[in-house]
Amino acid sequence: xxxxxxxxxxxxxxxxxxxxxxxxxxxxxxxxxxxxxxxxxxxxxxxxxxxxxxxxxxxxxxxxxxxxxxxxxxxxxxxxxxxxxxxxxxxxxxxxxxxxxxxxxxxxxxxxxxxxxxxxxxxxxxxxxxxxxxxxxxxxxxxxxxxxxxxxxxxxxxxxxxxxxxxxxxxxxxxxxxxxxxxxxxxxxxxxxxxxxxxxxxxxxxxxxxxxxxxxxxxxxxxxxxxxxxxxxxxxxxxxxxxxxxxxxxxxxxxxxxxxxxxxxxxxxxxxxxxxxxxxxxxxxxxxxxxxxxxxxxxxxxxxxxxxxxxxxxxxxxxxxxxxxxxxxxxxxxxxxxxxxxxxxxxxxxxxxxxxxxxxxxxxxxxxxxxxxxxxxxxxxxxxxxxxxxxxxxxxxxxxxxxxxxxxxxxxxxxxxxxxxxxxxxxxxxxxxxxxxxxxxxxx
Length: 444
Description:
Structural class: alpha+beta
Number of helices: 12
Strand order of the largest sheet: 2-4-5-7-6
Helix content: 55-70%
Shape: elongated
Order of helices and strands: HHHHHHHHEHEEHEEHHEE
Oligomer: single chain
Distance between the termini: 42 Å
Strand content: 5-15%
């Protein structure tokens, strides 16, 4: 970051205060340009000997006409977003106006006291070199003006004039040095804030990347489990197909035609298995929207019936409709698959998985119940911890229930677990009702 980028940095923040300040300075430059030009022309037209005279305010037309083009250049600079250039020209115009207006009036002109203020602002806003250079030029002009026209001051006041001039020069230089210190402190603060912002941005980007990798790992694990079940079902279908082919080869034309129709029916029944696997493997993350949990649960039940093995009976108990909720439907399907896969792995032999949906006054809930062995009390508090698993090594990563808990928390919901050893397990996902369409959405 360099001195020239200070104004660009402030503008890039797009804060309302900074934008308002930029607009104020731009129009102030234009107003000063018009006022200086109008005042200079008025003095030339209405007053004799008014080109550079102490009889008129601001010493006549010359100081105003000399500074007017500089004010106009500053305005054009602000319009073109050349902020550093515009600010420098604006301060040059102000120093030019005050020096030329005070020159014929002597060292005791009250307007000389504007220089310490201008010096402080110039070094603070423009930097050390430009601000200090302008201050030195203004101080030199004041000293030269006092030395060139000593006759305008009585002889007995000359020592006081030089003391006053030297004191005012010292004050202007001290103000410039103070502005330089302020400029460095502001610059250091901006650089520190920018470094912290970049650090936070990099950390946030790294966190988002890790979240993306985790979601991918969770998806791969779920797809792998579903692929195993799909392969099992397809193996059974292939056995049926091979049987039909064998019998068709042993029969007559009519038998072959009948077997071909049966083969076609078997292939059509197997198609949903592959479709379901492709849907789970698709990288689409979905969006948050209003959805009916009962309808989602029924669609999931239809898909699960096709994929799950025949020794598992899966049923769905859901009303026709429940109050809408705000969540990512794709994420909910992924969470349900994790719960069903978890239940299927827990059940040994024949068993049943029951899915239910309902609502109460403030929430809508969906639950997955199984007839597995249940979860001991001492493990129920840890089942949502990352990488915690009770499965043998190589048969589980401990991320399935973690993914469910992360999704539910991200949807402003809660997860409840009810389980007793030997009596199965119930996972209940509760979500807040979505606000009515006319009432807007209230954040939880």
